[in-house]
Design goal:
alpha/beta; Rossmann fold; two-stranded antiparallel ribbon; 9 strands; 19% strand; binds S-adenosylmethionine
Length: 280
C-alpha cells in the first residue's frame, strides 16, 4: 500500500495537483472505506488487484483536474456531508458565513414554528445546515434545476431532515407565497465576461447555471430582493451572499427595495461575503 500511495503522490505531483499527499490519502481511503487519517494503519497491507485498478482510475481523474469532491460525489459543509451531482454547485466554505450570520441574527421564536426559505438551494447545503442548528424549524428550498432539487432531497433524507424540509422546482420565487422568518440565498453572481477567467475545475465541473448572474453578475439580486418584503414575516431576516467587491451594488438594490437594518458579514479571510437586512 505504501508503495502504491507513493506512486499516486508522484503522479498527482507531476500533473501539478496542489495537495498531492492529502488527495492521494483521501482517494485511497475511499477505496479502503476508512478515514484518511487511518491510511497509515493500512501501510503494510497489500491492495487487491481491483482496488489498485480503482485507485489508479481515481488518481487519473484527479490528474485531469476533477476536484476530489466531484470524484467522491460528496462535500463537507458546516461539518455535514452533502451529496453532489452534475446539477449542483460544489458548496464553498465561504458560504458558511451565511450560517454564522443567521446564528447571530435569528433567535428561536416562542410563539410560532419558524419557517426558512433557501432560494437557489443547489445541494440544499444552506437550508439543511440551518435546520441542523434549529431542530424545531421547517424549511423550503427552491431551485430552477430539477436535478439539484432531487439531490437536495437525497441530502435531506440522509441527514434525517426530510420531515422538516421541502424542496421544489421554481424560477426564483415568482409564484411563491408564504411568510418566512429567514430567507437565505447564494445566487449565481459571476459576470458573464468573467467566465473565461474562472479556474478550469470550476468551468468544467460546476454547472454554469449556478455560476453566472448575467452581464453584471447582479441579475439574481434584482429578481430576488424585491420579493423579500412580501415573503418576510415582520421581524424576519434575509441574508444573501455575493462575490468579492459586489457588496456596494447589492446594498444599493436592498436600499432601493426598502429593506432596512442592512449589515455586512465577513468570511474567515476578512472579505465581506454577505449582507443581511430586514423588511420591517
Ligand atoms: C451559486 S449556486 C448556490 C447553491 C447552494 N445554495 C450553495 O450555496 O452551494 C446558485 C443556485 O441557483 C440556482 N438558480 C439559477 N437560476 C435560478 C432561477 N432562475 N431560479 C431558481 N434557482 C436558480 C442554480 O441552479 C444553483 O443551484
Amino acid at each position: 500500500m505504501e508503495e502504491v500511495l507513493e506512486t499516486c503522490i508522484a503522479e498527482l505531483s507531476k500533473f501539478g495537483v496542489e495537495s498531492p499527499r492529502l488527495d492521494a490519502r483521501i482517494l485511497a481511503s475511499s477505496i479502503l472505506k476508512c478515514e484518511p487519517t487511518e491510511i497509515l494503519m493500512h501501510a503494510r497491507a497489500e491492495l487487491l488487484d481491483h482496488e489498485h485498478a480503482a485507485l489508479l482510475t481515481l488518481v487519473r481523474r484527479r490528474c485531469s483536474g476533477e476536484p476530489v469532491s466531484r470524484i467522491l460525489g460528496v462535500r463537507e459543509f458546516w461539518s455535514l456531508p452533502f451529496l453532489l451531482s452534475v446539477d449542483t454547485l460544489d458548496p464553498r466554505p465561504d458560504s458558511e458565513t451565511i450560517i454564522e450570520a443567521a446564528l447571530e441574527l435569528v433567535s428561536e421564536s416562542q410563539d410560532h414554528e419558524m419557517l426558512f426559505l433557501d432560494i437557489g438551494t443547489g445541494s440544499g447545503c444552506l437550508l439543511l445546515a440551518l435546520l441542523s442548528e434549529w431542530k424545531s424549524t421547517w424549511g423550503l428550498g427552491v431551485d430552477i434545476s430539477s436535478g439539484a432539487i432531487q439531490t437536495a432531497q437525497k441530502n435531506a433524507d440522509a441527514l434525517r431532515c426530510a420531515d422538516r424540509a421541502k424542496f421544489c422546482v421554481s424560477n426564483w420565487v415568482d409564484t411563491l407565497d408564504g411568510q418566512f422568518d429567514l430567507i437565505v440565498s447564494n445566487p449565481p453572481y459571476i459576470r458573464a465576461d468573467d467566465v473565461p477567467g474562472l479556474s478550469r475545475d470550476v468551468q468544467l465541473f460546476d454547472p454554469m447555471r449556478a455560476l453566472v448572474g448575467g452581464a453584471d453578475g447582479l441579475e439574481a439580486y434584482r429578481k430576488i430582493l424585491p420579493d423579500c418584503r412580501r415573503l418576510l414575516r415582520p421581524g424576519g431576516v434575509v441574508i444573501v451572499e455575493f462575490g468579492q467587491g459586489q457588496h456596494n451594488e447589492v446594498e444599493s438594490i436592498m436600499r432601493a427595495e426598502g429593506l432596512l437594518r442592512i449589515e455586512s458579514h465577513k468570511d474567515l479571510g476578512g472579505t465581506i461575503r454577505c449582507l443581511s437586512a430586514q423588511a420591517t
